[in-house]
Amino acid sequence: MASSSSSSPPPRRSVFDAAYIRAEFDGAGISPHFIPLIWKYVLQNPRCGDLDGVPSLPAAAYALLRNKFRPTTSTLTAAAESKDRTTTKLLIRLQNGESVEAVVMRYDTRLGKYDGKPRPGGVRSTLCVSSQVGCKMGCRFCATGTMGFKSNLSSGEIVEQLVHASRYSQIRNVVFMGMGEPLNNYTAVVEAIHVLTGPPFQLSPKRITVSTSLLLRLALQYSRWFLPFCLVGIIHSINKFNNDLPNINLAVSLHAPDQDIRCQIMPAARAFPLGKLMNALQSYQNERQFLLSTLCLMGLTIRSSMPTSLVNSLKRLKRLLI
Questions:
Q1: CA distance 221 to 207
Q2: Exposed, middle or buried: residue 151 (CB in 10 Å: 0-12, 13-18, 19+)?
Q3: What does the pLDDT read at residue 286?
Q4: Up-side HSE of residue 233: CA atoms within 13 Å toward CB?
Q5: Is the Cβ–Cβ distance between 66 and 13 less than 8 Å?
Q6: Per-residue pLDDT for 224 more than 50?
């Protein structure tokens, strides 16, 4: 007697999963130059339910898209706007049932002044995107850290956050400062950035920032030698980031100039002593500038001695934006 159960087909992928759609098009003998046209259609029609409306594709492309891809695999389920309308928080449900947040932040440059006069320009929108569901870092001050790690986002799921956000603002800048540690999902983050800096998005690489709380993870993953705390390995990982993502901004989470306090609020900092971090950043700064973030926690990182400790930790570095 034949079994009544049958295996279900694999879920369709996001059309923004660049490596996957390129491989499928290549296997079907379809030119990859059609892919940006598909992305442009979805970006201009973020609520489209299918891809049949994409103009001027080969017949084989339409059949492949119907069988293996969806315009977006995620769904915008809620949006909350601040009273001053400068911030919009988006709740996005993924295909696996989990949810992530993305945040649109707006700033009117005309509110600032330059040389005593109002600055020219207008409203600029920055999108803060997530790269993981949960996070392995376990930072004490971070709500995502209390979730533990659940899953990595695909490159398509990262890009889709901008597609959803485009309903609310024209995005000028993207920062990887949402849920998750971007460098723990390195391949997907790199692929997503390559999509965002190409057609049809055409974001300037200089307007994309990747924030990381730990460089050592990448060092151990990509170094030729498994040498914890080895400066050579750390520099190798930084060079890989620089090669894979030229002109992309790097923001490093220092959070405290004292190693004991860093370990209290960032358990992962135990694997990366402050001295090693400074050595790695000094080497990186020979080629590139970077952002350095610190944390203000009353009674912990806000103490009378902290400014002096911070200056002492950073004095061997060059120009910094903190």
A1: 27
A2: middle
A3: 64
A4: 18
A5: no
A6: no
